[in-house]
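Consider this today:
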Amino acid sequence: MASRLDQIAGHLNYPKGMLVGQTAIITGSGQGIGAEAARLFANEGARVVVADVDGKKAQDVADKINASGGKAIAVPGDVLDDNYINELVKKSAEFGGGKIHIIVNNAGFTWDGVIHKMTDKQWDTMIKVHNTAPFKIVRAAAPYFRVKDGEPRNIINISSTSGINGNAGQANYSLAKAGVVGLSKTIAKEWGPQFGVRANTVAFGYILTRLTAAKEQGAFITTPEGEKVALGIPSAQKAAPGKGEENLDIPLRRPGSATEAASAVLAVASPLFSYVNGQTIMVTGGRNM
């Protein structure tokens, strides 16, 4: 019987891609970093489940992957809905021939406000989206991760520098993004010893997405209660000293692209990171080091 090290060495030599034979759920993958991650995972041979609250965008991402020779399905829905989470896991397992190998908990948004003006709804929504939903998805998928079939399993929770360093106007988001770090470490400690599950966090800095674009561009997300939440950073704040396009507080002197961010997620999911577990990978261009 091959040793565990021999099995790992074998994973480092996938002939047709690093994720061949694996099924990956990526939440919030209808656009931005999630969509890029879906594309990159599919390019490496994964069967990708595109999960997003926007059904049209999710289907578009899946269609493009399939048209390019990859394998993907769209399972749209709201991660705050318990029924949807159960459906997502069920359909993902069916798509994967009874197996799920990777979960990327990427879905989320910001709902900013200074502490003394932040509402209970702002606070509660961020905790539900960034902490409760990932926990429930992982819990629902437990039967597909607590297995001993010799195949790699890993969970990647997406955080932010706000969760590592805090950020003015984001007490809710900062707390929530700090929380996923603890979730990743706990999964690693509970499911690593017996089942070999890896769980890591990827914390993004300034990445060019709708969350970092100018708020005046009008991007928004609608909460389950029908309330529209404006996304982005006010232009006046973006133009403040050290916050402009020069990015003087970033050693690389530029923001990252969605593709660069998604590539980091792919790296963590890949066999190249087979001995990295319970860690927080900072993808910031050197900011806050």
